Amino acid sequence: MTRYEDTQNLPNILVTGVGSLPHTDPDAAVELIMDALPRAPHCPQLSVADPREQMWIQFSEGLPRFRVDLENLTYHFDTSGDYLQELEQFYAGYLQVSDGGSARDFAVSHDFGRGIHAFLDRLNARGKRYPFVKVQVTGPLSFGLTVTDQGGKPIFYDDTFRDVAVKGMGLKAAWLIQTFSHFADRVIIFLDEPSLSAYGSSAFLGLSKEAVIESLDEVIAMILAQGGIPGIHCCGNTDWGMLMESTARIINFDAVDYLESLTIYAAELRDFLERGGVLAWGAVPNTEQVERESVGDIVRRMDQGLNTLESCGIDREALTEHMIVTPACGCAGLSVPQAQKAYELLGGLDRYFGEDRFRKQAKE
């Protein structure tokens, strides 16, 4: 079995964020991130500050026939009429990027990414290189199943525009990696896939497991071609075995409420870890529970989680060879003080784990 080479240089434990924050001041959001996460700062997503940073809209620029009504906060693909010329232009851009060219035609503009550009400005001003920078893009399944055509049908069920949606998210990922690779040795990028928590429901009617994996793997291949490290973030319960059969290097799960759900997929998890896959533990609450948490609480939660997975036959050393720690999901639903507490905990965890104490404890 071939091991993933791109995860082997990850540290024992890396602490980073999911993405969204409740701030209306982009600079304040970036300052919070940079102070808490010195080894793996992440790009903030600020949908509270501007609806254009909402995950279904932020990565829509440059996609043919995508329509946004910001006043009513609606969006859809217009599949009516003649769209051949627009598709030809889109695919010409896609081929340029696939051939190693710049993805600047698929950039997220300042208007749609104040958080992204504030983060870029801060990285430029600091003039230093980080071991890792973490970014995120809407996953192709969630984008395609949430955004509809003009008649309300999920665009994922339109063969032409499904391809646009999948390739579009890959192109946005390519731009993010090209942009942030100037500031980091490696760029980690998560595909945010909240809709996968509904896998098996009517939302996925007629959509096979193979089609799900194929769509994920197409975007992941584009990420790998750009030198990024691809992960999948799902904040609810899902078919984790299916995600582990994809070529994602990292699986980010909610370790506060859904750790037990991983135990059903022990065989798939063993294979995933053997290939060099990495679990990203969403161990910091992203609810008001965070107000009552300490670093010690989170370390104990992770240790209990390791015990649970080990009891299912998962090798503890394989689990702790490489680990990532994040909030359970984005923090946009918190108040600013609650988000600050969450990031205080992330900073405390980064310092705690920076000494490799957790792995040493795991071996004892």
From TrEMBL:
It comes from the Bacteria. InterPro entries: UROD/MetE-like_sf. This is Methionine synthase. It comes from Desulfomonile tiedjei (strain ATCC 49306 / DSM 6799 / DCB-1).
